[in-house]
From TrEMBL:
SUPFAM superfamilies in the cross-refs: Inosine monophosphate dehydrogenase (IMPDH)
Keywords: Flavoprotein, FMN, Monooxygenase, Oxidoreductase
KW Flavoprotein (keyword) present: yes
Domain of life: Bacteria
Pfam family, one: NMO
GO molecular function: monooxygenase activity
Protein name according to UniProt: Nitronate monooxygenase family protein
Length: 326
């Protein structure tokens, strides 16, 4: 299945694995790329820019196919040295970068000057147009269904994607809620050129998270997420557990960030992935977990997605021959 995305990224299938803090390591990124998609390493999962350089080199040893690095720029009390991470990405000649979280203008200019293909991920049409105007080669649009930060507009993919597709000129990746061939075909029908997935790739054999986390994703339904930090306008979709429900309750009752600071601590959430104790802290997952029934290898997953999409395409073509459709 060839689209503008496969051509631009030099990949076999129009499927990208989005950046995932604590999850998107070299193993996962390389497995996705080896399976014909685009794997992405999360820069800030590495404790230092030097560690990121080592992780990129490790990924190169695992695959000779294209892969990317995600650089997420989020508001922080003590921000990481974003420019130094950026410099490592450039120095290591990574072919693709995914930026997310804030206006990427400065970073995109630097990446473009280094000949790196840039994907900017955002959650609204206005931010997508802005990213295009500052030079993003590809825009990823995350609908309200997505894991992580859906923004504050609450527009689901079914409306957001065509709204973006009819204004954007650069290729579009549909993101949030995708897990199978039906989703891929729907994304293409809505005007996207491919899909990007987080939760589905977190629940694969090669994903580095504890098996009990993967089992929890398989067991969960689409209703088992919470939107935390809404009153602070820094909404995040995470797994529903005692910790996330407490965060929602405290803030709904008028609490401040200080009242939930310890509950939402990243170090605590990271332990969930390591220990497999899904009640230990806040961990990120999307509504699409309700559509995930197995822990597949990345290769089996991608083969299944494109095969399923092809069956749907052929069936639709048989049901609506082009001569009848006009
Ligand atoms: C565990 C996890 C961690 C994530 N961390 C990040 C991150 O650090 N930066 C980022 O841009 N997106 C992050 N995301 C969002 C994904 O890249 C992607 O946009 C999202 O998962 C899409 O929704 P889906 O899970 O329904 O596929 C994360 C998602 C998950 C599941």
């Amino acid at each position: 299945m060839q689209t503008r995305i496969t051509e631009l990224l030099g990949i076999e299938h129009p499927v990208v694995q989005g950046g995932m803090q604590w999850v998107a390591t070299a193993e996962l990124a390389a497995a996705v790329s080896e399976a014909g998609g685009l794997g992405i390493i999360s820069a800030l999962t590495q404790p230092t820019p030097e560690a990121l350089a080592a992780e990129i080199q490790r990924c190169r040893r695992l695959t000779d196919r294209p892969f990317g690095v995600n650089l997420t720029i989020l508001p922080a009390i003590d921000p990481p040295p974003y420019e130094r991470y950026r410099d490592v990405i450039i120095a290591e000649h990574v072919p693709v970068v995914e930026t997310a979280g804030a206006n990427p203008a400065d970073h995109i200019a630097a990446f473009r000057a280094a000949g790196i293909t840039t994907i900017h991920k955002c959650t609204s049409v206005r931010h997508a147009l802005k990213a295009q105007s500052v030079g993003a080669d590809i825009v990823t649009i995350d609908g309200f269904e997505c894991a992580g930060h859906p923004g504050e507009d609450d527009v689901p993919g079914l409306v957001l994607l065509p709204a973006a597709a009819r204004q954007l000129e650069v290729p579009l990746l549909a993101c949030g809620g995708f897990a199978d061939g039906r989703g891929l075909m729907a994304a293409l029908a809505l005007g996207a050129d491919g899909i990007s997935m987080g939760t589905r790739f977190m629940c694969t054999v090669e994903s580095p998270v504890h098996p009990d986390v993967k089992a929890a994703i398989v067991a969960a339904s689409e209703r088992d997420t919470e939107l935390i930090l809404r009153p602070l306008r820094n909404t995040s979709r995470v797994a529903s557990n005692t910790v996330s429900r407490e965060v929602v309750a405290v803030l709904t009752d008028g609490g401040t960030f200080d009242d939930v600071r310890e509950l939402v601590a990243g170090a605590r959430g990271r332990k969930v992935y390591e220990l497999g104790d899904t009640e230990h802290g806040i961990w990120t997952v999307g509504m699409v977990q309700g559509l995930i029934d197995d822990i597949a290898t990345c290769r089996d997953l991608l083969t299944r997605i494109v095969d399923e999409a092809a069956v749907i395409a052929h069936r639709q073509l048989a049901a609506f021959p082009l001569s009848q459709a006009g």
